[in-house]
Structure formats: structure tokens, C-alpha cells
């Protein structure tokens, strides 16, 4: 029997976490068994951490971007060296199976690689001026301290998306991890501290603040934090957004997702089945990109549902430490309660639970849910509500217009997909009058985004973009510059004065 506490301690020690950080009042429990892993020290003074990071930023902003990239390059190397240790902590704290935990750590390595390249590509534009002898251009400058608030389900990847890019942009970072997953934060912070020391960068360039709601509120309200990047529920975003806006700060919000996939008559049903099962049941349904609604043409619905039910009945559910497990535990009892409440509501609305919905008995007191497939007569309120658990609602449609209308008729707008071999159907789904999500896929599920493409969504998902494309602009401020080399004072729009 593996000693979970010892495994956590060994991984933390390997990453360089000091014992003093592991003596405190915040109890960390593992979803694998429900038992206590360790306790960690909470942050008493968030303002002090922010002030220290701000002072470090004032030095860091003048360092050339390619030199800043060298720090992130070293961070990526250290993460790679400690990939197994970090994956172990992700499994113990978040309950992910080994391959998903390793995949999350790989995302960290990938975003470091991306950010290193980005450090030589923070481009501004040069525009033609209407005045002879003038040059019009824009330059980008570091923003300041970036506050990162992350959720339990991706305890390290989302932090790295923000931190790697923010550092090459010249910013400092203060990270408030979920109080459910602080061990992974301590490990990542220790590795970054080592990289900072080796690069002779300012020591307080990155700080971790640990605690509950009050810690997050202090970070959100700090006038020295010009950007707050927050990942969590839509409810959380509704509180964070106005508070930051009230002090004229910026937000980058990654909130709820109620993701759907449309399956057309021409779809490859075997391919669709594999993609759907991973997207709906992977991570025990605890991804913001989890597939929660399946909109299937009536002509293929029965066949596809039969394939899904068969696949669900074979899903290996159990401890993520066991080889072959595909579905690990929910994070805690509250998550299990939300799942059972949602299934009860679906039944009251006329839904039929075709498979799953029960709790699987595993050693200890973990909450291992059987992923559920629920056939629904209509898109009711519970279907339009995101439940962070492995529930897949199945709806049917007759025309593609009807499918797209069903797809878009939810408050969230994160990820979406269509399964079709008809090019016109694919193009329609990708068009302006198709999916209204920030991520739109063809013949692939809703989860599993790659580094390089901008990640984020619309509507109640918050509108933020991270991880790729031009998302770096969120971490910088833009200045428009006019340089006069003409020797004359020429005013724009032919204005004459004096």
C-alpha cells in the first residue's frame, strides 16, 4: 500500500520545498481517500507579498525581453527534470490519473518553450503618418504585478500559462492557488525560485499567497495589481470582475463552460464515440472544457447512444495510482452532492439516466462517481447549468439550424465541436452564425487544448484569452509614439495654430 503522505513529502522535498512551509493551519486532503496529506502555512500579509513583487517588477521591466526569456527557459528545464514529482502531486491533490497528470506538467514545459520564443517577438506596429518626416508606431511595455488565481482542476498548468508569458513580458506574479491544491503551488514556486536565483533575477519576482477567500480578495483589491487573471466559476467571476474594474484594473477571466458537440448524420461514429468519452468522462468531468451536452441528429442518435453506453460500462473507475484507471475521484463530497442534485433535477425534467450516476466504492473515503449518460427530452434549466461532474446530457435535432440554436442557447461559451464529414456543415459551424464559443473544433472533442492557440471563451465564460496567439498583449500596456524628424511642427488633420 502506497503511503500517500510520504509520497507527497518526497515529491515536495525533491522540488526544494522547505519544511517550514508545511507547518500551518490549512489542511490538505487527498481526493483519493479523503485523508489528510499535510498542512501548510497560510499567508498572513498579502499586501507585503504584492509590495515585494512590485519592487521586483520595477527592476525586471528594464531587463531585455530575450534575457527575461532565459529565466523562463531555465524554469522549463527544471519542470522537465521534476516532471514525475510534479505529476505525483497533481495526482495526490487533484485526483488525476497518471497520464493526465503528466500531460498537465507537459503543458507547463510547452508554455515555457512558447514563451521563450515569444521573448523575441513582442512586436509593435509601424504605421504610415500623414505628416512628412514623421514616424507613427506603437511600443509595448510591462504592465506590473499580475495576480493569478487558479482553480483545483488544473493546479499547475493554468498558473504556468500566465506566469511564463507574464515573466517574458516583464511582469512580476503573485499566485493565489486553490486552497484545495496548495502543495503543487509550493513545488512550482520552489522551482521558479531556483530559476530566479540562477538567473540573478529579482528574488521577489514571484510570490505565492496561500489561504481562503480573504487572501483572494486582498489580491483582487490591491492597487499594485493592474491585472488579475482568475480561473474559476462564473459566480466567482461576477465578484472579481466588478471589484477590479472599480479600481480601473484589468481582468483576464476564465470561467464556466457548458460545452456541447453536434453529431451529424455523416459523422464517423466510432471516432466520435472515442472523442466524446474522453471529453465527457476524462478528469471525472472536472474540466472547464468537459463535454456536457451532446446534440445528435435523430437518425443516428440511438446508434451513438448505444455505443456510448457500452463504452461507459467498461470505463475503469478507481484510484488514479492504479495502472489502467481512466476515471479517478471527484475532488470532494460537495462535488458529489452537486452531481446527485443535478441527476435528480434531470429526472424531474423527464430525463432518463441510461448508465452511471452511482458512487463506486474504493478504499478510503474518496468520492468516485460513475460517469452518467442522460437522455433528455429538451434543453431544460439543469442542462443549461454547468455541473462540475461527469454528466453527459443527450439531445436530438432534425436540422443543423436547430442544432446550432440548441448549442448556443446556454449562458456559457467556452468550447464546442461538431462531428461531420460534410465540409459545408463544418464550415457553417465555424462561421459567424455557427458556434458562439471561443474554441470551435471539427471532428475532435471539446477538451485537450494545445499550447499556441489562444484559450478562452465568450459570454459567461469571461472573454479572457491565455496560452497562445496574441494573448501576451493582456500582460502588457501599449503606447502609441509619434517621432518628428522633419524639423517643422506639422499638426495632424492640417490644423493651423500660431
UniProtKB/TrEMBL annotation:
Xref: InterPro entries: Ald_DH/histidinol_DH, Ald_DH_C, Ald_DH_CS_GLU, Ald_DH_N, Aldehyde_DH_dom, ALDH7A1-like
CDD domains in the record: ALDH_F7_AASADH (cd07130)
Active site positions: 254
Keywords per UniProt: NAD, Oxidoreductase
Aldehyde dehydrogenase domain mapped to chain residues: 27-478
SUPFAM superfamilies on file: ALDH-like
Coiled-coil ranges per UniProt: none
Signal peptide: none
Enzyme class per UniProt: oxidoreductase
Highest taxon of the lineage: Bacteria
EC number: 1.2.1.3
PROSITE patterns: ALDEHYDE_DEHYDR_GLU
Molecular function GO labels: aldehyde dehydrogenase (NAD+) activity
Quaternary structure note: Homotetramer.
Family, as annotated: Belongs to the aldehyde dehydrogenase family.
Protein name: aldehyde dehydrogenase (NAD(+))
Organism: Cryptosporangium arvum DSM 44712
